[in-house]
């Protein structure tokens, strides 16, 4: 998917919501456990209830890998089910020496090889240029590079000062722009770091940012939107648990749909206020 197509969808749905499919067999409603594929059945109902309010879906790959071969099958079926207009993110946080990264890229981008055809994959920058660029060989596919993450441990490395007093995450954003343009590269910035967004926009004014951490992690959608939005929105704000486990009863899909709609209504307000 191109950047323009993503922005078109945002304008159409008046939303920049990404629903995180962090589907945990131990958390889904009990009544689904009799299904042949409970994980897919849960995702199917969540997608049906939320797709009119969401522009993207982000299956977190750990939740599927933990189920072994069955999990990959649920993931493949989920990918087939997600409406074609939606942007898809393999939240896999990959990155390795070049030839291995090439295989990771095939795993998520090359349908003929793996059966999966994601639009994007999250990548850790720690191993540098040759660990990231193999993902960029696939046209219209995106790398979403971890920059400033939402978790407490982000400060252990990401905020370290370099010789020129720049922080490590700032150098990740600067250096990675030598590898790809904003047509193929996004950054992860946690919603819990909204106070840094004005500064981050000086480093990456045009890029889309994937912003997890609203909902269960307590980040503010209003602050993220106010400080992070640019002229083509430039934001995909993810909520996983806050939507998919809003109810863990038989009405889970209906309640997830209501939660997604609440977020969309708020986003519509911010698009009117802050789209520059
Ligand atoms: O790359 C991510 O998606 C990610 C980066 C980050 O900094 N923080 C973060 O929470 N995430 C992911 O975003 C999702 C957040 O889930 P909730 O806190 O339940 O909304 C999880 O799948 C996390 O793995």
UniProtKB/TrEMBL annotation:
This is Orotidine-5'-phosphate decarboxylase. GO terms for biological process: 'de novo' pyrimidine nucleobase biosynthetic process; 'de novo' UMP biosynthetic process. Its EC number is 4.1.1.23. The keyword Lyase applies. Pathway: Pyrimidine metabolism; UMP biosynthesis via de novo pathway; UMP from orotate: step 2/2. The keyword Membrane does not apply. It catalyses: orotidine 5'-phosphate + H(+) = UMP + CO2. Residues 16-256 form the Orotidine 5'-phosphate decarboxylase domain. GO terms for molecular function: orotidine-5'-phosphate decarboxylase activity. SUPFAM superfamilies: Ribulose-phoshate binding barrel. It is an enzyme of class 4 (lyase). InterPro entries: Aldolase_TIM, OMPdecase_type-2, OMPdeCOase_dom, RibuloseP-bd_barrel. Keywords: Decarboxylase, Lyase, Pyrimidine biosynthesis. Pfam families: OMPdecase (PF00215). It comes from the Bacteria. Belongs to the OMP decarboxylase family. Type 2 subfamily.
